[in-house]
UniProtKB/TrEMBL annotation:
PANTHER family: CONSERVED PROTEIN, HYPOTHETICAL FUSION PROTEIN. The lineage of its organism: Bacteria, Bacillati, Actinomycetota, Actinomycetes, Kitasatosporales. InterPro entries: Glyas_Bleomycin-R_OHBP_Dase (IPR029068), Glyoxalase_6 (IPR041581), VOC_core (IPR037523). Residues 4-115 form the VOC domain. It comes from Streptomyces salyersiae. This is VOC family protein.
């Protein structure tokens, strides 16, 4: 039996705000939006993210992050910032590895990486 990435789990304090942000950012659909949810799967054609409500303050944000690939990195960064992300830094040290580090509404870091269109659709 093979193995594949099924989901990336993000611990959060406000599961509703995080559901709205990530569903809009990546075109995902939540498994539920019921009041009192402590865990939600956000599914889409290109991947799955899980949100888990943390019972204690969320810390150690740099232990996990998402890399999002785009063939129009600047437009996607602008769109995500309009949705509530915050720009942290643009890394251009290596011309083959151009990316922008963003923080979601709760401060979780993620990257938007410039990739050719052929690589954006790869799984």
């Amino acid at each position: 039996m093979g193995i594949r990435l099924g989901s990336t789990v993000i611990n959060c304090a406000d599961i509703d705000a995080m559901t709205r942000f990530w569903c809009e950012a990546l075109g995902l659909r939540p498994s539920s939006t019921a009041p009192g949810d402590t865990f939600r799967l956000l599914r889409g054609d290109r991947g799955t993210i899980s949100l888990q409500r943390a019972l204690t303050p969320v810390t150690a944000r740099d232990q996990m992050h998402l890399d999002l690939y785009s063939d129009d990195m600047e437009a996607q960064v602008e769109r995500l910032v309009r949705l509530g992300a915050r720009s942290v830094r643009h890394v251009t040290d290596d011309p083959e590895d151009d990316y922008v580090v963003l923080a979601d509404p709760e401060g979780n870091l993620f990257c938007v990486c410039a990739k050719p269109a052929a690589q954006v659709g790869e799984r």
